[in-house]
Amino acid sequence: MSQAAEAGAIGPAPRPPARPGLLGAAERTLAWLNARLLLLSMLALLAAAGVLTSSVVTRYFLKLPTDWQDEASVFLMVFATFACGAAVQAERGHVGIAALASVLSPRANRIRLAASDLVSLLFCSLFAWKSWAMFHEALVEHQVTESSWGPPLWIPYSAMALGMSLLSLQLAVQLAAHFRPREAT
Predict the structure, then answer these.
(1) Cα four-point dihedral sign 116, 117, 122, 126
(2) pLDDT above 70 covers what percent of the chain?
(3) CA distance 107 to 131
(4) Which of 25, 63, 84, 114 is an S-S bond match for 41, by CB 3.0 to 4.6 Å?
């Protein structure tokens, strides 16, 4: 269950009013970027489906090899998976533990969410750092896959690195929002 659903929401988490200052600018920039990456991810998944469908048809009816099609679809799916991670996190759409939210006080639940964001930020930052190292290594050493097509490995590694960096940035913005002054209600 998503963390947004833990709070009793149905569907995507409601957007808070635009915040002023650096935090608000970061939120707006990420929202703009996430919307475009979601669209690109959707197109990448559709392209992967098209490539895999043509692969099946080409192999079955024409009896032609399709080495490139499997790898191309994997590369497209890697892009789609990592590119939309920050957008999913912005909606708090990742899996959470609903049982805890229902028994904790609102204050304890806010602390739990902040702690979850902190641990996630640390993990995703480490993943992003390692992905950038793999990207650099693949680029400098001209690494390619072992298939007969042999596309460069920096392509999926760059998608991993960019996606995890954006997810880390999204988590950092959300973590900072936990510590902003509360508005009077």
Answers:
(1) positive
(2) 85
(3) 36
(4) 84
